[in-house]
Amino acid sequence: MRTDREWMYNRLVDGRRYINPEFLVGVETFVEYACHQPAFMDCDKIRCPCCKCQNRRYLLTDEVKLHLTRDGFVKDYYQWVCHGEPLDISNPMQTQCNSSFTEEVEGSNLYRNMVMGAIGSNFDPNYGENEEETPDPKTQRLYAMLQAADEPLWAGCSKHSQLSAMTRLLNIKSEFHMSEKCYDAVSQLMNEALPTDNKLVGSFYETKKFAAKLGLPCEKIHCCINGCMIYWNSDIDRRSCKFCDHPRYKNRQRASPRGKIDIPYQKMYYFPLTPRLQRLYASEVTAKYMRWHDEHNKKDSVMCHPSDAEAWKHFDRTSPSFALEARNVRLGLCTDGFQPFGQSGKQYSCWPIIVTPYNLPPWMCMKEAYMFLTIIVPGPRNSKQKLDVYLQPLITELKDLWEVGVLTYDVSKRHNFLMRAALMWTISDFPAYAMLSGWSTIGKKACPYCMDKSKAFSLLNGGKVSCIFWDLPYWSTNLVRHNLDVMHIEKNVFENVFDTVMDVEGKTKDNAKSREDIKIYCKRKELEKNDSTGKYPKACYSLSTQEKKVVCDWVTKLKFLDGYVSNMAKCVDMRKYKLFGMKSHDCHVFMQRLIPIAFRELLPMSVWKALTELSLFFKDLTCTVIKEEDMIRLQENIPMILCKLERIFPPSFFDSMEHLPIHLPYEARVGGPVQYRWMFPFERYVKVNNYHFY
């Protein structure tokens, strides 16, 4: 046996689920060697020496790498005789081990190549593709625990199992903020009332131990109170911050059964992503749908899912080995700050990091059940440019999922495979865009597409200006890395339009300073100050007091289907004739459905047409099924629409938010429908779970 090839049978690290890096390097060396042996190749294919193929199948090199990483080498294949390496006859043991391979190679290779070329290289009557395998040990333990937990709570109980009763109690504790002592008292009372053979545990501590067996861990990581660093990895033993020298622990200690322990100034929570991705394949409900993106019928130029778009296909071309396994997971990441105590409570800014898989079909993708909270960045202050500090554990896990992968049991196919994962893009509002990408979204170069090519300038009177993930090896090749959030862009554009047309005090873009800028840049005499009266004339794009009253009366009488939109009548201020407190979805509906109706009889035709075209632009952009030619049309039309608006509204109306719609059709054409890349589902998730965070 050759000692320099012991790596061939050391695939897993210490019998665990992680692939040995030395094994991966060895596989690359083997494939490179085989590719330089023309006599033993079939075009761009080589024999696959994995345990299942056993040198009988000719596959593409990327497929061979995948099979070897998943199944390992065939037994005793230390000498690569089927791949052109001469047989070492001086070693009797090696000769005996490779005799079966030698017989096949000698004298039959040309005929076999001819036959395989005729019937197809994937044909193999002896290859058991659908052979069932036992789950990996971790998944097997999960199934065993679930089976035991599904037994009745006591003999004869038909309503609750041990698992359902305990999860119900945990939910009640979280929902009503029950203390641990109260939980223990309730559990003790239930134990006394139930039959003596019941399986309900008697304390919160025992309940947590039971829940921990589900294999969904939570890591508490100490961090600097100033957000400079986290005490993790090589810095786990530090007692103070290496940047600001702030101490890690408070001066007091807390008593525990294990003795006194130090109390950190601040800590973050990290929920590992890998176990939850594995659960998607361990469940009969979701496992079969995780291949939907690869198996559904795709129509040319029609996009109903990100897998139909160019960004996904480009990723497949740049990472062919990843694309070969349809069960590899594509991910999206979203973050947004929120105040758990509301506007009137304690000022506290919290940032959850949410990851969601895109493999699932449209009716499952982006649903709350498949949004995985991975990190809770603590407050009370906004993390701003230090968000990357808290993302370190997630970035490291994403790198491992890309470079190494994890052994996962697919219950739908009844066998184990090596699951890898890749982050497709991030989703956030425009301020958070800067935190995730490293690109400043303020100033003249705010647009991340135009960058230094922007022709923005500062107005003379108004004064307004008209990375993190690069550690991932594939990040630089992604066509879309950070999405422009259509939800917030549409909301901001709507508010600017509506407040300017309704002439809302303090919010309209039409004020004294903007009129002076009009005099300098636009030369529109009809909007300049009247020297005799010292007043500015009414603009054609703003409504009179009586017209504003008509709009507000109309809004108060609107009736919608339940769930379509909130009660807009509550947002109407009849004293100042304005709308207030409108949510993002209300702005979405008003922008796309109501603007053409609300201003039809009140604005000049040229103004109304321009606003209607803007409304239809967002309506077409946000369709659930889009076509490539439609997005190209929108990409050509939106500059013309904005030019029409420039001839109507003052220069102060146009800031970065009015510029960003130019790039939205391109992102839709490359990334797919916006429903998978905007903030609506994530904000709903945060709103629903806000009560449980604190």
**Residue runs with pLDDT of under 50 for 5 or more positions:** 92-130, 463-467
- Major β-sheet annotation: 7 strands, mixed
**N-C termini distance:** 60 Å
> Can you give the helix content as a percent range?
25-40%
Radius of gyration: 31 Å
**Global mean pLDDT:** 82
Strand order of the largest sheet: 3-6-10-9-8-13-14
The counted number of beta strands is: 17
Shape: globular
**By helix and strand content, what is the structural category?**
alpha+beta
Strand content: 5-15%
In total, how many domains does the architecture comprise?
4
Note the total helix count: 25
Helix and strand topology:
Blueprint: H1 21-35, E1 45-47, E2 58-60, H2 61-71, H3 92-97, H4 99-105, H5 109-119, H6 137-149, H7 162-175, H8 180-193, H9 204-212, E3 219-222, E4 249-256, E5 259-264, E6 267-270, H10 274-282, H11 292-295, E7 302-303, H12 310-318, H13 320-324, E8 329-335, E9 351-357, E10 372-377, H14 387-390, H15 392-403, E11 406-410, E12 415-419, E13 421-428, H16 430-437, E14 482-484, H17 486-501, H18 512-521, H19 545-556, E15 572-573, E16 578-579, H20 584-598, H21 605-621, E17 626-627, H22 628-646, H23 656-659, H24 664-671, H25 680-693
Parallel strand pairs: 8-13, 13-14
Antiparallel strand pairs: 1-2, 3-6, 4-5, 6-10, 7-17, 8-9, 9-10, 11-12, 15-16
Helix pairs in contact: 1-2, 17-20, 20-21, 21-22, 22-24
Domain Transposase-associated: 5-85
Domain DUF4218: 622-688
Pfam families: DUF4218, Transpos_assoc, Transposase_21
